[in-house]
Amino acid sequence: MSETAARTLARMFERMSEVIEAEKDHLSELDGAIGDGDHGITMSIGFKAVTTALAGMNLETASPSDVMSTAASGFLDAVGASTGPLYATGFRRAAQALAGRDMLDLPACRDMLTAISEGIRDRGKAQRGDKTMLDVWLPAAEAATVAVASNLPRPAFWKAVETAAENGAAATATMIATKGRAARLRERSLGHADPGAVSAAALIKAIASLQP
Amino acid sequence: MALKTSAPRKGVAGRANGADGLDAIPLRYGDDPYVWACWLYYEDGMTQGEIAEAMGVSRATVNSYLAEAREKGIVNISIEPARLASLTIAQELKRHFGLADCLVVPNDDDTRPLIGRLGAAGAQALSKMIKSGDTLAVAWGRTILSVGEHLQTGPLQDVTVVQATGGTTASFAYTPELTAAAVARAISARCVSITAPAIVGSAQMHDMLLAEPLIREQFETLARANRVVFGIASLRPNSTIHTSGFFETVPLQHYLAKGAAGVLAGRFIDERGRPVAGPLDDRTIGISLDMLRDIPTRIAIAGGFDKVPALLAALRGGYVNVLVTDAATGAGILRADGVTSLDGKLSQRQRSVPVANSYRTHVKKFLNNPNDVVEEMLDGLIAAHRPYIETVGTSRRALVARNGPRPGKVGLVIGGGTGHEPCFVGYVGKGLADAVALGNIFSSPPPDPIVKCAVAASGGAGVLFVYGNYAGDVMNFEMAAELAEEQGIPIRTVLTTDDIASSPVEDKEGRRGVAGNFFVFKIAGAACDRGLTLDECEAITRKANDRTYTVGVALESCSMPQTRRHNFEIGPDDMELGMGIHGEPGVSRERLRTADEIVDAIMDNIFKEMKAEAGDKVAVLVNSFGATPLMELYILYRRVEQRLAAKNIEIEANWVGHYCTSLDMVGASISILHLDRQLTELLYHPCRTAILTIDGRETNGAARG
User: Fold this and answer.
1) Which residue of B476, B558, B564, B565 is the best one to mutate when testing the A interface, meaning the one whose CB has the most A CBs within 10 A?
2) In terms of C-beta density within 10 A (0-12 exposed, 13-18 middle, 19 or more buried), how is residue B600 classed?
3) DSSP label of B28
4) Which of A71, B14, B370, B632 is deepest in the core (most CB within 10 A)?
């Protein structure tokens, strides 16, 4: 691997942006059922802005932490709404977690996933089971922790993370939203997967496909 | 039956005998023998033979009249939809989960609390099932206590009621002891308590207590139970499980983190109904999940949408074979488990009326490129309101009042999504808000423009943020507050929560901010302009928010410029009471009523919370959601004035018009600010903005009541 960790992270964000672009309409449709129908658009704007911001960096000299904090500000300035602060805080925490590291090994990936999920949790003050993106990020981070602890090889690590994320997203259909605008829908949110959770699973799948 | 008097009945029979008799039809039925036959049959309750005699035709003819009348649609048999729906839901629940029985109470009676209605229904179910000689295990809970209060049975012999768990020291009325005793009393059964605490300090203590002969004997009774009745608790933040004192908070968090979705008789299960292991398991004295599942008749009584995940978990785990719930919860459970056939069944039966104008797929709007609406609107708006506002630097998402901020004055920053015009930007100007941060349509602005506003509004005395209570806004404004404080600007925040329909009074802090923003901004702006301290400004603004009450009603949904389709549908004869300003649903979807009835429903809600006495003064805002014209707003205002006058509450000032809209939504909201002396003074404090100018006691746009 001659590629720098910063470059790997930048490619990871590019892949995330591609996946969101492909899923954009589907996400907006999901959001239309229980929110205001713009989740796909918001995520697309956010990740395009991240890609643009990263394009301005020198990835040969930048650290993984720099990439994360640039992604955080890029996303936030473009989006606002509720997704903006959540992902921006998650990426900013990941930047802190990756500070001083120049390798993206599995423990670093675990710390990155954990930092993102904790950032999202602290900013949104949600709990597991509240039918949010947290129902994907938390189990994914836990799966990463378990995978590192049991010395799983790279492919099995990412398989475990991806599966946890997918199961988490599917489970949101049986939950009732307590956060965000869907919370006002009360029981009408049942049977619908949370769009934020579905997009989170798509993002994790995108990361996993790179096997960093 | 009022029209019965002139029906000719038997008098006609003699005359018409042998003839075809149609000339004998009374005039009021026109010349339609079908209508006459139907009237006599369905309204007068005559038999087909009597009708044949009355009409002078054969019985077979009457029979064919009645049959054809059904086909021609002269007669429609209707079953009250709410009751029919609950029957359908009950059948569907029974089928889907393989239940022995299911009772679903309709949601058409909101005058009685759900707990009471479930209790009555549970009592009904239980009274049918319980037999002489039974042993009935009873778990604790509010709903089950209510079952006990409603329960009546015929004479039963040798019934034993046994407490399903140990007891508690909690002070509420639905402890395990009291719940079991209430049920036992209602059916004159012997009551066996479990004379140990439900949760003990250690596993050793648990084992020691269970080894005691007395308690062992009580558990033997419990093990003999052939029926059990229990409630199901959710772990959601507002569940009584957190406040009951039954569980300690720390272990609860443990179960929650491990994915617990519900609690049955003190035992935790996950969303698939599997037991969740945790620190209380070995310390809980009571029925185990395995014991529970072995009881032949397992009656669960629970309702309320927040319990859906818990109920679904219990059903999936097989802990329930008789379910008593309400229609909304039942439908929610089915939807959550992926049953889609229900919606079809419900709407099929309510025979759908063709929607007028359904041929039109797009709403007409004045647009260039739909993706540019916000930028283009801001161009126009900044140009139109140049006397009052200017951009902060080059960002059009951060606008500041000309001559607004000044040294020593607390700055007032407001903001939120666009699509609510003239909110928020119309309230920026001298004497009101100093700056406004704007996001995309119905979306919070990011922190950056908010920070710019804070800097622009800061006069060295701190800055007050006032905005509506929405998750996105809260996060962005909080981040902005952190950034502004890093720059040495003290920030205070007041969230507006005037929409009393959005959450019950116990969850006041969870309510959203809607058109009542108008009053809260006005009072906050005046307090800031008078040079009060940041503390004082915050306290007064909080008071204004606490005394502002809004309820909205929507008749038609709004449409986004990008889609030009309705964001959601409100049926042709329906309205949504309690609608929010982004189309969030409110209290209930109801049949459209007259303007006065709608105002009455709104005012009744407001009077429930507003503690105004005769002689008190209020300010009134009747606000259009966008498409409702002034003509209708005045009709609403008329009734508001009548209702307030009847209580001798004086309208000090009023505003009627477009003050906080939701794109092109059809609908209106009524906001009342309950004034006191301080608020009245601040309401009249001069201000000059694009939408609101007040010059001492002379106001434009507003009238003295």
Assistant:
1) B476
2) middle
3) G
4) A71
Structure tokens, A153: 């090889």
A33 interfaces chain B, CB cutoff of 8 Å: no
- DSSP run (H or E) holding B554: strand B548-556
Placement of tokens 């949104």 in the chain:
A124
> Which A positions 109-128 lie with beta carbon below 8 A of chain B?
123-124, 127-128
Rounded Cα distance between A207 and A14, Å, is 10
How large is the greatest C-alpha to C-alpha distance in chain B, in angstroms?
A: 104
Amino acid residing at B132: S
The tokens for B226 are 């052939």
Query: CA-to-CA distance for B68 and B370, rounded, in angstroms?
Result: 54
Q: In chain B, which among 391-450 make CB contacts under 8 A with chain A?
A: 439-448
The DSSP line for B141-208 is SHHHHHHHHH---S---S-EEEESB-B----STT-HHHHHHHHHHHTT-EEE---SBSB-S-HHHHHH
Residue B457 to residue B256: CA distance in whole angstroms: 44
Q: Phi/psi of residue B650, each to 5°? A: -90, 135
Q: Which of A42, A123, A174 sits opposite B309 (nearest CB)?
A: A174
Structure tokens at B371: 């993706």
- The pLDDT of residue B206 is 93
| Owner of token pair 């939203």 | A177
Taken in order B164, B169, B170, B172, the sign of the CA dihedral is positive
- The two three-digit tokens of residue B602, written as one number: 């709104």
State the angle between helix axes of B447-457 and B471-486 in degrees (0 to 180), rounded to the nearest 10. 50
- State residue B665 phi and psi, 5-degree precision: -65, 140
CA distances (Å), origin B226, targets B39, B40, B156, B160, B595: 52, 52, 16, 10, 55
| Cα–Cα distance, B672 to B617 (Å, whole number) | 10
Q: Residue ranges of the alpha helices (H) in chain A?
A: 5-34, 39-55, 64-79, 83-98, 106-124, 134-149, 154-171, 195-210
Spatial distance between the Cα atoms of B492 and B489, rounded to a whole number of angstroms: 10
Tell me whether residues B306 and A86 touch, CB distance under 8 A.
no
Peptide bond into B219 cis (omega under 30): no
CA distance B343 to B334: 10
**CA–CA dist B307, B102 (Å, integer):** 17
Give catalytic residues of B, as residue numbers: 420, 582
The CA distance from B150 to B123, in Å, is 6
Q: B617-624 and B588-591: which strand pairing?
A: unpaired
Starting at the earlier edge strand, list the strands of the sheet with B491-496. Answer: B389-392, B395-401, B435-441, B411-418, B463-468, B491-496
C-alpha radius of gyration, chain B, whole number: 32
- β-partners of residue B695 are B698
Q: A184 and B443: CB-CB below 8 Å? A: no
Average pLDDT per consecutive 10 residues, chain B (705 residues; last block may be shorter):
38 40 53 82 85 86 86 73 76 84 80 86 89 92 91 87 87 83 92 91 92 93 94 79 71 84 92 90 92 92 89 92 91 84 55 42 87 91 95 92 94 96 96 96 93 97 96 93 94 96 84 96 98 98 98 91 79 86 73 94 94 96 97 98 96 97 96 97 96 74 48
Specify the residue for token string 């003999």: B224
Q: CB of B119 within 8 Å of any CB in chain A?
A: no
ipTM: 0.78
Is the CB of residue B698 less than 8 Å from the CB of residue B692?
no
Dig out the tokens for B180 from the structure: 């079991």
Q: Tell me the chain A residues in contact with residue B309 when contact means C-beta distances shorter than 8 Å.
A: 129, 174-176
Contact B256 A179 (CB under 8 A): no
